[in-house]
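Bench notes, bay 3.
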Amino acid sequence: MSPEQRTVRLLGVDVGGTFTDFLYWDGEALRIAKRPSTPDDPSRAVLAGIAEAGWTPREVVHGSTVATNTLLTRSGARTALITTGGFRDTLAIGRQARPDLYALHPTRPPPLVPDELRFEVAERVAADGEVVAALDEAGAERVLHAIADAGVAA
């Protein structure tokens, strides 16, 4: 193995909604860079940042807050949810772990998927992967048509 092949060249990239951050370690020095993100195509900011810095990474570690920010700002695509029969409202109900556990009238954030876009289909799979009740394909087909009619994007 040549010295060039043994050289550490590790690039860490964090793509955010506003900026894309870079950390580059060549085995001797840590270099830092930042450039504006390109939300329409995050890869453009990553590739431009690498090219501008003149780095030649051997390994790349990537992270992104884009999905997290989309959830927090509720700015994602119109989304539907399909669940196993009987579990349609599980996400809306939530869990017992909440700051106002004993409040008689707790405030809840609006659901990520609105009520009219939550669907269920008859089927059941056990924890070990055994199919307990096969998918009701006709029911699934009806749900898919309802989702298409609702103009869902995701």
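Next record in the batch:
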Amino acid sequence: MSLFLPFIDATRLLKPHFERADVRFIVADSFLGWAQTSASALGVPGFAFYGMGNFATLASRVVAVDRPHAPVASDDEPFCLGAGGGPLADVTLTKSELSPPFHNPDPVSPLKEIVISSGLEVSPCRGVIVNSFYELEPRYVDYWNERFGPLLYNVGPLCLAAPARQSAPTEWSGWLDMKCEQNRPVLYVAFGTQAEVSETQLSALAAGLENSGVDFMWVVRRPVPGLARFEARVRERGLVVHEWVDQVSVLRHESVRGFMSHCGWNSVMESVCARVPLLAWPMMAEQFMNARLVVDELGIGDGKRRGFVEAEEVERMVRELMVGEKGRVAVERVEEAGRAARGAIEEGGSNNRQ
């Protein structure tokens, strides 16, 4: 992540070469605002792609422009996102749930400058493409399109755009097959590739998983001291994977009935499409906003914790999702959302009526 800003800045060097290409249509990441000025120069339609959902897109705009957290002194004091009404009127966040530099109402940083400059360049584009679907976030799509702009066009879930890949058998796929034969539901645990989790927190997570009595598959990318002994103790019902896994295939496996996730938007979409409820554990960027949507509005999961989580709390959350009443309700809700996701991309679905 330390190279993100230099990389974004360096892409501007491509602009003169980019404008010599024979193009008829441009879709570019929202951070590459210069591509939209190229679209204007070439006289072709330009669309920006936002990696967030509609709710987080709207909430981020409100935080950056309206600064509802300006009067708040404490990082842990809730503030209302929609004091002026609209679909955010009952949504609260804290400054600790906003990533730097935007937790500060008056931030000064290179990231802020890039966000502002890109936003200005994107604003006159033809529209914004969103990896979501209307039925999941209708209030936020409508509010944005009525009050702001450019128009949001939902084209997701993109994970349904291609058929599931037939991967070669792996240790983890064989283990999941075995759990399916044993009729043992599995909790899938993964926090993406960017979040940094402390060794102390990983140890608490391991203890919570062990004490929960739930079968689990946990993806851990880096070595953790003491984890080998943990793996040996839980080998009958837990698998720790130290390699890349095909997350879509994991979530679509019949044995997987829950997903402990950082709530990155791609992971949320993949879980919805697989009809697997989420245990939200947001860590950075807009993940706290995604967790609010998952837990408070959609009801397709539980969680939404921040800061250090003790082993006892991990155990409680895991059991509640996998065998508790909240988990049962979340399963029903995510089944509905999954059906709506499939319907959105079909002929005559909401994606084709924009």
